[in-house]
Amino acid sequence: MEKLLDQLEKAVKLELLNAEKLEEGVKSLKSEVIKSILGSIANDSRKHAEIYSGILRILREVGPAITEEDFSRLEGIVKTHIRMEEEMIETLNRFFKEVDDKRVEYLFRYILDDEVKHHRLLLNILELIVKREVVTEKDIWDFIWREVPFHGTPGG
To answer: For residue 45, is pLDDT > 80?
Structure first.
């Protein structure tokens, strides 16, 4: 287990370094599209670093139980974001009808794939919240990831 923890700590550092290098590298580029795409990848690297840090916390600590107050607050937050994700999915689907440029369609598809993943995760979280069951940290992660294809591997 200690070896895994060390590797996860290195992964956090590598992801953050990747983000920093990408952000630094794109500053002098003229293409706003390339800057945006590489900036998005840098943001993903920061997100991955945060997820790795969360994994480290899970493996090192016992997560706190979710209180009734947390359930209530989360329910409102999650329902709001489900509606927002649905709006973005609808908007992106309209965008596809408005453009006939494969490059732009590719970028819309990239964003749409993220929005669909977010929507699915939020629905899973909402189902867990509505059940109001006593859940463990492991239950939460099992529930969130049950419908995510590839579970973070290439292609997902």
So the answer is: yes
**pLDDT of 43 over the 80 cut:** yes
- Judge contact between 112 and 92, C-beta under 8 A: yes
Q: How many CB atoms lie within 10 A of CB 56?
A: 16
Q: Classify residue 103 by its DSSP letter.
A: H
Helix, strand or coil, per DSSP, at residue 133: coil
Task: Say which amino acid occupies 138.
Answer: K
Decide: 5 and 59 in contact? Cβ < 8 Å: yes
pLDDT in tens, 99-128: 999 989 999 999 999 999 999 989 988 887
CA pair distance 150, 29, nearest whole angstrom: 33
- Least Cα distance to 129 among 86, 69, 88 occurs for 69
Q: How far is CA 83 from CA 17, 53, 74, 124, in A?
A: 34, 29, 14, 14
CA distances from 116 to 60, 84, 90, 111 (A): 31, 11, 11, 9
